[in-house]
């Protein structure tokens, strides 16, 4: 059996890759695997070509600065793939680099089978790339049930394998433990604030959230802010607002909350799975927002709403992210009747994410395609 090349370009890909490779090792114990990954994938690789820290570059300016290094890395991967005589590649997320690598592998190694895990969000932007992806790849493993239909009529086998969040999203501790650890009163209503994990998101979202708390004129509540592992709690300027910060308790904070304000992104899908009524918030720089309006072609920007196919959760974008509007929305979310209705709708989103066992399904299909 020919070796398998596996490339993960960031921390989330390293996590997904490790889960898939463990399942694959159990099914094909003698398979030789080489590639790029992080600490989780490394023990599962026979030959490590690069680390995720060599690949994980975000932002237009940062990518430009790292282009020479990324080109060298791609050349090194291609050279190793030819030396090893790989018969297939599993490219995990990280679409910018991995699609370019897929095209290069297709040209350099006749007959190679190319498999990609995580459908790029072409349904939101650059839909014109769908045919290119569909003609370059052999298999595309999709996390959302609506994605395979986008590739109908193209040679790629687009498969819905389910979303690993179904297994990953669960409170870190029970309710009593969480309230005790955080120094919160379990008899009072709780609001969770999630301003994002990137510094740029905090710079735009934290201040209006703090102002919302400082000027709160609704029913009595207490406030909690789960701090992302990438951030230092001491760096958050809360200006004396009565907000408790917690570490390593992001899921528990939301699961225990009566309502939440959540930065757009994967966190909105996580919050939907936890069943907490919430509103999605996001602010871009004016120039980025104008550019995004030209390319984004979907009526809803929140991932939870995209997956649901309708507006289940309120979305506040740009100028709507202000204390007056946020307080107004929070009061609605805390209303028992509205909250109950939203919880029912949030429960329906889980059905769009599939059953547990996504990694096993990918490994099972991939094993059947190895030669």
From TrEMBL:
InterPro entries: Glyco_trans_19. GO terms for cellular component: membrane. Keywords: Glycosyltransferase, Lipid A biosynthesis, Lipid biosynthesis, Lipid metabolism, Transferase. It is an enzyme of class 2 (transferase). Its EC number is 2.4.1.182. The keyword Lipid metabolism applies. Pfam families: LpxB. One of its GO terms (molecular function) is lipid-A-disaccharide synthase activity. One of its GO terms (biological process) is lipid A biosynthetic process. It catalyses: a lipid X + a UDP-2-N,3-O-bis[(3R)-3-hydroxyacyl]-alpha-D-glucosamine = a lipid A disaccharide + UDP + H(+). Condensation of UDP-2,3-diacylglucosamine and 2,3-diacylglucosamine-1-phosphate to form lipid A disaccharide, a precursor of lipid A, a phosphorylated glycolipid that anchors the lipopolysaccharide to the outer membrane of the cell. This is Lipid-A-disaccharide synthase. It comes from Mesoterricola sediminis.
